[in-house]
Amino acid sequence: MLLELPELPFSLRPYGPDGDWSYADGVLTGTAGPRQDRFVPPTGETLEPASDAPRLLGAPEGDFQLIARVRVGFGAAFDAGVLYVHVGERAWAKLCLEYSPDAATVCTVVTRGHSDDCNSFTVDGDSVWLRVSRTGRAFAFHASLDGERWTFVRLFTLGEEEESGAALVGFLVQAPTGEGCTAAFDRLEFRPTWPADLRDGS
């Protein structure tokens, strides 16, 4: 199943567990089932298949910015709506609005074999704007409270696997500890450019 959104110049395809993805009136909605997550614990030595969560991904070309406001129906710890980047089975990253541990928090996970985990700042309420950008091998994460002024969160690459094929980018919903979580993404925007300055709020 391919999903075409008028705001995006590329098709989206579901990956992982069924996310019951739907789009109507400018709002993309997805749902994670009980204890669904995408994380490879850094404390473990095994590289067994990573836990998984519903993903909806496509392959934009060249430099880009993908922007969305995410609203999460928080019910349990670490429920999240996510912008997601994937370049390989052990090379991917998440920019999340997550309930962690007792407040809505912008956090990131970058996985190169194992996952790391980094909280950035808390958010009043259940929504925030998220932006993922790419130029060449570099990715940047930003978040915003109003969709106008952006806070720089992270700049990174995902290693050599990225060179073997096009990066996939899109959306993920997770519910690592709870019985399920629904997230809605609206105000979707795609820009075929890298931000002029990562740290000046633009």
TrEMBL record:
It comes from the Bacteria. Gene3D superfamilies: 2.60.120.200. InterPro entries: ConA-like_dom_sf, DUF1349. It holds the Pfam family DUF1349. Signal peptide: none annotated. This is DUF1349 domain-containing protein. It comes from Streptomyces rochei.
